[in-house]
Design goal:
The chain has helices at residues 2-20, 258-296, 300-307, 322-336, 353-361, 378-389, 417-422, 435-444, 457-465, 470-474, and strands at residues 36-37, 44-48, 53-56, 59-60, 64-69, 72-73, 84-85, 93-96, 105-112, 117-127, 135-139, 143-145, 151-158, 169-176, 182-183, 189-195, 202-209, 218-226, 229-241, 244-245, 311-317, 341-345, 364-371, 396-399, 411-412, 415-416, 425-428. The protein is an alpha+beta fold. It holds the Pfam family I-set.
Length: 478
């Protein structure tokens, strides 16, 4: 009686020792001391009743490992689980000599170090007898690998017992080609078969590739045969460029057409950017050119009505803005763009602007007012804009500075300043050489007569007197 018990004890210790060595073979290559898995974390395990069974949590860089079964922390009573820790495996292995159906459940290992904590859950199913159909337990996820790097894929399954003489039970990796056919691995792709000491029906296989090249990218199949049953699981190896995953696979077997999708997105984005740039650069110019083309085909009666007015534009400003108007605005409108320009200097206070402009407006086809918002309070600015908007032909307002961002806008007669501004034809000034400003301004003003008539003498004289000081006046505005 003593010898059988001793033999059983020796075999039990040997089985536990072998199971504990599971975490020391076929480990992942690691170059750091961080807490990390040293083998692929298998999410499903199988065992058989009254047989030896072990489960593992192979990690490194941890300070402690805690185990839980269905939320209950280790150690467990007989009614919860028969599995116990194998201390020689640094708490990474649980085992039992005689597994029972009650040992089935979710086993969670929680690894911790000084700063981090991670968990991994294994579903353990204790079966009554071996199965006749294969059950895949683990397959690597899709990989993104740089060219020249190393690659490792793993697949593991519970294969059924062979009951027929010509039946086979095995697991192997196959290469899936772009046309959908399967073939053997390339000579540079090494396959390594593995078995379990605790359950002989569990087999696995690694694919290892040193220095991945273009021919290694694509889809791989883990094919498990058991009697007449075949189970296939797939994993795709993608190209990763400069450390960043590429959305396009080197194979054409992806379920999503990433390559045309990405190329379409890039082309659409480039087209959108191009359209925005073309719009900002040419839309106003095209509108102005079309307007000028229509003007050249105008009837004689229309041209006669244009010439009924003595001037094309009445330019109004205050003393603060006189240098800019006389040095830049008037010469450009009169000499470059051939407008017949009349001028009016307004009082600084805007309370009587309506009457001042009305006295000269009858002689002009349009009104242009130059305004510096910075010299007025919100209430004065509202008054000025309302005075101008009340004119029979509301003027074009050139703002020399941006409107202030007011926390409390001025109100008068229920109107807000922002509402008045939104209903005013505003052209913001930027620089005398900014083509977009002049194009937008000319679109707001009526076109000058096609045949240039003699302009008022005082405009020409004013421009000539300021010719020497023009360069300094052009940049007087900040």
């Amino acid at each position: 009686m003593t010898w059988p018990l001793l033999t059983l004890g020796v075999l039990s210790v040997a089985a536990a020792t072998t199971a504990a060595g599971y975490c020391s073979v076929n480990t992942l290559p690691t170059n750091s001391s961080w807490m990390q898995f040293t083998k692929e974390p298998v999410p499903v395990e199988y065992g058989f009743e009254d047989k030896f069974k072990s489960i593992h949590c192979c990690v490194k860089g941890y300070r402690s490992i805690e185990w839980f079964k269905d939320g209950v922390s280790y150690p467990w009573s007989a009614g919860v689980s028969n599995l116990i820790l194998y201390p020689e495996a640094a708490n990474q292995t649980l085992y039992t000599q005689r597994a029972a159906h009650g040992d089935s459940g979710n086993y969670t290992c929680r690894m911790s170090n000084e700063t981090h904590s991670e968990t991994h859950t294994v579903r353990l199913d204790i079966l009554e007898k071996p199965t006749s159909t294969p059950r895949t337990m683990f397959i690597s996820k899709d990989q993104w690998v740089e060219e020249g790097a190393d690659l490792r894929l793993y697949c593991e399954a519970l294969v059924g017992r062979s009951y027929l003489a010509d039946a086979r039970s095995d697991l192997r990796w196959m290469r899936v080609w772009p046309n959908g056919t399967e073939g053997d691995l390339l000579p540079t792709q090494t396959e390594i078969k593995t078995t379990r000491e605790d359950v002989e029906d569990i087999i696995g296989s690694y694919v290892r590739i040193e220095r991945v090249s273009a021919q290694d990218y694509g889809m791989y199949a883990c094919v498990v045969h058991s009697n007449d049953h075949v189970d296939r699981k797939y994993v795709t190896v993608h190209y990763k460029f400069n450390g960043l995953p590429s959305l396009t696979s080197w194979s054409n077997d992806s379920s999503i057409p990433w390559r045309p999708l990405v190329l379409g997105i890039i082309a659409g984005a480039l087209l959108l950017v191009s359209l925005i740039m073309l719009h900002r650069r040419y839309t106003l110019r095209l509108l102005l050119a079309a307007r000028q083309a229509r003007a050249r085909t105008a009837t004689a009666a229309h041209r006669a009505r244009v010439l009924e007015k003595e001037f094309d534009v009445l330019v109004c400003w205050t003393a603060v803005d006189g240098e800019l108007v006389r040095g830049a605005l008037l010469p450009t409108l009169g000499l470059k763009y051939k407008y017949r320009v009349h001028t009016l200097q307004l009082q600084t206070q805007p309370d009587n602007w309506y009457n001042e402009v009305m006295s000269q407006m009858a002689r002009c086809r349009s009104v242009l007012t130059v305004l510096s918002p910075a010299q007025y309070s919100p209430q004065q600015l509202l008054t000025a804009l309302r005075q101008l908007r009340a004119l029979p032909h509301p003027p074009v307002v050139v703002l020399l500075q941006d409107l202030p961002k007011l926390k409390r806008e001025a109100k008068e007669g229920g109107e807000r300043l922002s509402d008045v501004v939104s209903h005013t034809r505003v052209v913001p000034w930027r620089h005398v050489h900014e083509r977009a400003f002049w194009t937008q301004l000319r679109l707001e003003l009526p076109l000058p007569p096609h045949q240039r008539h003699n302009a008022p003498h005082h405009i020409k004289t004013e421009s000539t007197e300021n010719k020497n000081s023009c360069s300094g006046s052009l940049t007087a505005l900040v």
